[in-house]
Amino acid sequence: MSNHEQHENSHRPLKRSGMSRRQFLSYTLGGAGAFMAAGMSLPMIRFAVDPILKKKSGGTWIKVVEANKLTNEPQEFKFKIHQVDGWYVSDPELTAWISNDDQGKAFALSPVCKHLGCTIAWNTEKNNEYVCPCHNAHYTKDGKNLIVAPKPLDEYDLKIENDWVYLGPIKANTRV
User: Fold this and answer.
1) CA 43 to CA 31: how far, in whole Å?
2) Higher-confidence position of 7 and 113
3) H/E element holding 121?
4) CA distance 154 to 174
5) For residue 123, which of 145, 147, 141 has the smallest C-alpha distance?
6) Distances in whole angstroms, Cα of residue 143 to Cα of each of 74, 77, 94
7) Number of neighbouring beta carbons within 10 Å of residue 135
8) pLDDT digit string, tens, across residues 29-88
9) Which residue of 12, 47, 114, 138 could cross-link 146, Cys pair, CB 3.0 to 4.6 Å?
10) How far apart are CA 45 and CA 38, in angstroms?
11) Cα–Cα distance, 60 to 166 (Å, whole number)
């Protein structure tokens, strides 16, 4: 080998097998950053998804009134339900108008007007109708909409057990 060839070979950079310091630092810092980002984002994702993954309990029945206290004239009954919205737990008070129909079968109507959501009242104008004080919507005893409101009043699921009236979830009115 000549002097010239030796001199050329000595100025060439040596090829190293493996990882350089710069690559090692890049991989290490990138991995540590990804680990910290995952550690911060997983609790937030769990917080958002956890209520969705919880089992839904079946429709609960609320004991409201003794069956022998019902009449053919609608009466207003208040009751509380236990409610869990995510992590917020509350016991709101709800209202139902409960009465017997002409055949003596009990039914319960929601007091929420289907026009704009105001609370209706029974027989305030002495005409044996539900009346909404906000925009003068009228409903029959069965909840059928007469004027203003676009739909009939909603109805509660109702069952009678051991001489007590139990109310379930609200459903569309099946009486009209």
Assistant:
1) 19
2) 113
3) strand 121-122
4) 9
5) 141
6) 11, 16, 18
7) 12
8) 999 999 999 999 988 888 888 777 777 665 688 999 999 999 999 999 999 988 887 778
9) 138
10) 10
11) 9
3-state SS string for 49-92: HHHHHCCCCCCCCEEEEEHHHCCCCCEEEEEECCEEECCEEECC
Residue type, 145: N
Q: What's the pTM? A: 0.66
Distance in angstroms (rounded) separating the CA atoms of residues 142 and 165: 18
Judge whether 137 and 149 are in contact, CB under 8 Å. yes
CA distance 71 to 64: 15
What is the widest separation between alpha-carbon atoms in the chain?
A: 123
pLDDT digits (tens, 9 = 90+) for 89-133: 899 999 999 999 989 899 999 999 988 889 999 988 888 899 999
Strand, helix or coil for residue 18? coil
Q: Which amino acid is at 50?
A: D
User: How far apart are the C-alpha atoms of 37 and 44, rounded to whole Å?
Assistant: 11
CA end-to-end span of the chain, whole Å? 108
Each residue of 94-107: b (16+ CB within 10 Å) or e?
bbbbbbeeeeeeeb
